[in-house]
Design goal:
20 helices; 9% strand; 12 strands; mainly alpha; 480 residues; RNA-binding; 3-stranded antiparallel sheet
Length: 480
RNA sequence: GCCCCCAUCGUCCAGCGGCCUAGGACGCCGGCCUUUCAAGCCGGUAACACGGGUUCGAAUCCCGUUGGGGGCGCCA
């Protein structure tokens, strides 16, 4: 049997990190077993579903490196893969279920239901609706005839129980005294999530339903519908949810939760996908930096962690730095350039591009995020640098500052123009004035870059150019 | 209130009855390197929630408690 899994987001929001992880695990599972991933849009809620969200989900998945074999956009033998296009099919199944006695038309009002739940809470029992307002066939037919179709509920057999072997959690049992008779078709003829999702899983031949733990308690309902349809059951696997650093459900107040936010913040997709994979799963051994290919060969649903993970981006930042350093230098420059040009508000000319190229490797090993690059190299492309106040105070107040700035101008004027040449000239100047490297070079750094934190000094001087470097030392000296 | 799931360092993960005086990673702290900051290297800090069992032997199995999460919609 070929493995067929699905990722079925509702386009009611941007793809968030939890959804991205669920998609990733489905993808890894499919690829590991040489199976197929189906992407479907669970958009039965027309009011909240939008095209903007739908395309964000597609873009985010693609950015992460997750592709799908069937479904939205790529097509396949099952139509549009949008539930909003399949209402007729859900209705047809609902009617079949009514005909077979597995479901019934029901006239319980919201007030009836609420009253029952209140009674149950008082009695310390499960708040379960048992179908007491079930409509007779004749009454139901009359209501339908009158254009006032009542909702359809699934009849849960009581007494009874549903047990299944969850691929990540093991055996799970639900006694039917705790499972309601649930609505599968609303009064307006639209399907509920339980019906639509289950029918699609059956119709699309899904073999493994891998989804979030938030749906674990709904699984008995899905199993019951599947059985009533006379279909074989898929294997279910429920992934634990992601929490915020405070241990509470991950939400906006914990910071960015949308995948797109990480793309925009300068994260590399490989880092994000690697981080998401490690959050709740271990590739084995002690290695945590692992490529998608390696993940595919090692992935196993049974080894996915059962406990909820805290989404803490500290490690993601480190990991992003690892991936940045692993990049090809040219590729790094190419990706950084647009950000730098945006920061400057103008394109770089050829000389500047070459200057960028020369310090790129130095910046690459210092950046954790792409958004940090522009501030680090800005000094190369502006006429005058803005001095960081804290740096200036700390460095320029020493008596050595003036000596160094004065001496450096002469040293550079005479230096052979190479990193080695500049270093030799400056070190000779330091010796001549009896200055330590620390005391003598920091003023030059602040004068050159505006900050006491910068890429290595000699390389920076050479990249900037003799004229500009000397001018900056002169200006700083005058400003003391 | 009822049901389900979960429980190892601050965080993520390893451990699936003896190899555990509990391992790795991130973070944090210290050192080395060094023109700053990084990177790199070395070292350190820090956990089996609690209580009962089972067993010759429990982080590992069972029960309970506590804690956390999820669910209980004509939302998905």
């Amino acid at each position: 049997m070929t493995v067929r899994v699905r990722f079925a987001p509702s386009p009611t929001g941007f793809l968030h990190v939890g959804g991205g992880r669920t998609a990733l695990y489905n993808w890894l599972f499919a690829r590991h077993h040489g199976g197929a991933l189906v992407l479907r849009s669970d958009d039965t809620d027309a009011g909240r579903s939008t095209d903007e969200f739908r395309s964000d989900i597609l873009e985010s998945l693609t950015w992460l490196g997750i592709d799908w074999d069937e479904g939205i956009e790529v097509g396949g033998p099952h139509g549009t893969y949008r539930q909003s296009d399949r209402f007729h099919r859900y209705r047809e199944v609902a009617e079949t279920l009514v005909a077979s006695g597995a479901a019934y038309y029901d006239e319980a009002t919201p007030e009836d239901l609420q009253a029952m739940r209140d009674d149950a809470a008082r009695a310390g029992a499960s708040p379960v609706y048992d179908g007491r307002h079930r409509l007779s066939e004749i009454d139901a037919a009359a209501r339908i005839e009158a254009g006032d179709a009542p909702p359809v509920r699934f009849a849960v057999s009581r007494p009874g129980e549903t047990r299944f072997e969850d691929a990540v959690r093991g055996e799970v049992v639900f006694d039917h005294t705790n499972v309601d008779d649930f609505v599968i078709l609303r009064g307006d003829g639209s399907p509920t999530y339980h019906l639509a999702s289950t029918v699609d899983d059956v119709d699309y031949g899904i073999t493994h339903v891998v989804r979030g733990e938030d749906i674990l308690s709904s699984t008995p309902k899905h199993i019951l519908i599947t059985k009533a349809m006379g279909a074989g059951l898929p294997i279910y696997g429920h992934l634990s949810l992601l929490n915020g650093p405070d241990g509470k459900k991950l939400s906006k107040r914990h910071g960015d939760t949308a995948i797109r936010a990480y793309r925009e913040a300068g994260y590399l997709s490989q880092a994000v996908v690697n981080f998401l994979a490690i959050l709740g799963w271990s590739p084995g051994e002690d290695e945590e930096i692992v490529s998608l290919e390696e993940m595919v060969t090692r992935f196993d649903l049974g080894s996915v962690s059962k406990n909820p993970a805290v989404f803490d981006t500290t490690k993601l930042e480190w990991m992003n730095g690892v991936y940045i350093r692993a990049m090809d230098v040219a590729e790094f420059s190419d990706q950084a350039r647009p950000l730098i040009e945006e920061d400057l508000g103008r394109p770089l000319d050829d000389a500047e591009i070459s200057a960028l190229g020369s310090i790129a490797p130095l910046v690459q090993e210092r950046a954790k995020l792409f958004t940090e690059v522009a501030p680090m190299v800005r000094f190369l492309f502006v006429g005058e640098v803005a001095y960081d106040e804290w740096s200036w105070e700390k460095v320029m107040s020493t008596p050595e500052a003036g000596v160094a700035l004065q001496g450096a101008q002469a040293a550079l004027a005479a230096a052979e123009w190479s990193v080695e040449g500049v270093e030799a000239a400056l070190r000779a100047m330091l010796d001549e004035h009896g200055l330590s490297a620390r005391k003598g070079l920091q003023p030059l750094r602040v004068a050159l870059t505006g900050s006491s934190v910068s890429p290595p000094l000699f390389e920076s001087i050479v990249a900037l150019g003799r004229e500009a470097a000397v001018a900056r030392f002169r200006r700083a000296l005058e400003s003391i």
